[in-house]
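Possible regression after last week's pipeline update?

I re-ran a chain I had predicted before the update to compare outputs. Posting the input and the new output here so someone can diff against the archived version. Not blocking, just want to make sure nothing changed silently.
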Amino acid sequence: MNAERHVPPEALVDLSEGLPVDAAVRGHVERCGECSGRVEELRAALVSAQKAPIEEPDPAYWDSFLPRLRARIRREERAARTRRVAGLAAAAVVAAVALVAVSVRVRESVPEPAAAPSAGEISLLPPVADDEDYELLLDLVELAGSDPDWDGLDPASGSPLDVSSLDPEEQEALLERLSRSLEENSDDRS
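New output (post-update):
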């Protein structure tokens, strides 16, 4: 503590009431006339307050004190309850708005179900671009001629796709193409 910085008022009050204070504070007050004067003023005010007569309130005051205290407690409890209910109501409104916003977003992000395909649109075969055996089929069609009988693929029927009707050279060519296709397909799958 120095001449420019005086003791805070709380420390002066503690000193005037005889409470323990830091040694530096006590030393400053002993050296500083302004601070020691304030402590003396506070002590005088304290002595004066202690000597002042305390008038007892009118008996009617005490008769009404407890009912007034109870009424005030009830008002404060109602106000606290109202604040709690208002807080809960506000939280419920916020939750409801958030729920509506989320449900709207979910509805917007869920696509409409696609119409079920008709029986004619369903194919068990892969698209031509993905069909690994398409080239082999084209080769078989080429071997069968320009107008194959697709309904008679049974070898016993003598259809143009009947391998037994091929001459040995055509059978050899077909065998090579089938082998090549199988090798390519097995390489692609591994």
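Follow-up from reviewer: compared with the archived run. The helical segments are 9-16, 23-31, 33-51, 59-109, 134-144, 168-189. Marking as no regression found.
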